[in-house]
Amino acid sequence: MINNLINKIKDTKAPICVGLDPKLDFIPDHIKNKAFEAKGMNLEGAAKAVVDFNKGIIDMVWDLIPAVKPQIAMYEQFGIPGLEAFNETVAYAREKGLVIIGDIKRGDIGSTSEAYAVGHLGKVTIGDNSFSGFEEDFVTVNPYLGSDGVKPFIDVCKEEKKGIFVLVKTSNPSSGEFQDRLSDGKPIYEYVAEMVDTWGADHMGNDYSYVGAVVGATYPEIGKKLRKLMPKSYILVPGYGAQGGKGADLVDYFNEDGLGAIVNSSRGIIAAYKQEKYDVYGEADYAGAARAAVIDMIEDINGALGV
Amino acid sequence: MINNLINKIKDTKAPICVGLDPKLDFIPDHIKNKAFEAKGMNLEGAAKAVVDFNKGIIDMVWDLIPAVKPQIAMYEQFGIPGLEAFNETVAYAREKGLVIIGDIKRGDIGSTSEAYAVGHLGKVTIGDNSFSGFEEDFVTVNPYLGSDGVKPFIDVCKEEKKGIFVLVKTSNPSSGEFQDRLSDGKPIYEYVAEMVDTWGADHMGNDYSYVGAVVGATYPEIGKKLRKLMPKSYILVPGYGAQGGKGADLVDYFNEDGLGAIVNSSRGIIAAYKQEKYDVYGEADYAGAARAAVIDMIEDINGALGV
After folding, report:
1. What's the complex ipTM?
2. If residue B38 lies in a helix (H) or strand (E), which one and from where to where?
């Protein structure tokens, strides 16, 4: 799947993914009202609004991008109907040929991490049968519990040829509270990065490993350093756009082969219609605004990379 | 809810919770077969087996204990039907008056953590209405992203009078890889503990804060130290029993008031019937074995505490 992701990045010339994090505030009224009419102003109605909104976005951007990154929290908040909407979104994006990065930030120990891994990337065995509960291609994993928490994911990834992105340095303002603490002169996130490199050596695709890293766009100097510490790991970069990252900041997240990073934007794309820059599209054509924002983002990043 | 939890611990004289982590291997064949006959050998059948098994346990232990701790990964692995089983389990335990600690180990940033908090502890607003997607009383939270990831949970907890347990030092063998790294002479988990104390000061119940900590039973010396660093925080202690912790190891996790810790056992209770010690009960009376194991666990801990 890492080979597949890379091939799709090469084909689209777009090292980006679109974060499908549909807060209700982002969803135009005409979609919400229709969904509420059909299902009620309840969890089911919200879930339908989310799916309809996502499908509109996917229809307008699938040909431009390699991958989408649904943030499961935004679905989980709507309970069971919300998670059904997550699955519908994943299935629809897969139909369109997109790689699915489930932003789930799970992480536990031993058999518990295994259960998450099986549930999201693999198949759970029930009697003589096996089933997929959720069906992403990659998921994000929290490393705080150490190898015991991460390796069960890698074991499932090996069977399924799927991958993970381990949180190394996150994009948020307080990410430094623990991640930046120096130990023997090195911040904690570097220790995590070294482990990502080690874990990845054990599960390689053609040129890159199946074990990637999350490094926020908001800390370019750190990105540069981490790129070198994990040369074989793909870096998933959140924080572009709404959180402040720009293409010019991200050059050093890439390797010299022009690969090695995939930059995510969520709000900046899916709620682009709310920005002055795209207000010609209006709420009715929110998906057209998303397409324009994707094109601009690709241009910004490729321009910075000089490709 | 922290006051409620403490009152229930006092009433039952049992500073413990039962981990409802029903792997299919733990569930007796007669329950699985009946569930598969009713629903099929599929996700729905597995989910029904889980609920039936849990109800059997709850029926036999609810009068002895203050709380249960369902581990959501064990449900999530069965997809949507699994999470419906999670909700059914939570609802059934609540009917029996038990406090629900959702072991979800979520953690993200800003509005994303808020979505998890709203989904599990609060209510999500949809138009003019609000709904609970999942409905625990406490959840566990991963601190790797810092205050940005934790505070949204606390904000929801304040509104709902609910609480969280933040991972400080986990019970697994590799927990030290990052948690034990020394920074200025102090391990990372102490920095997290200090933040737990700070966060908790902002959301106090009568005697304890609504912000607790997870500290594994397998590191008693660390438990003793952390107890003192977070005097107002309840400590949720995993790792008792199957992972090796014993009552005698846990004395220093408690404060001098005899309160301040709640010890979890999962496999040691729910799969007690598989232990030689309880094999008189057999598979048919797995719940009787669980009750006996709960009584022994309470005796072990209270004996060590000298109460």
Report:
1. 0.96
2. helix B29-39
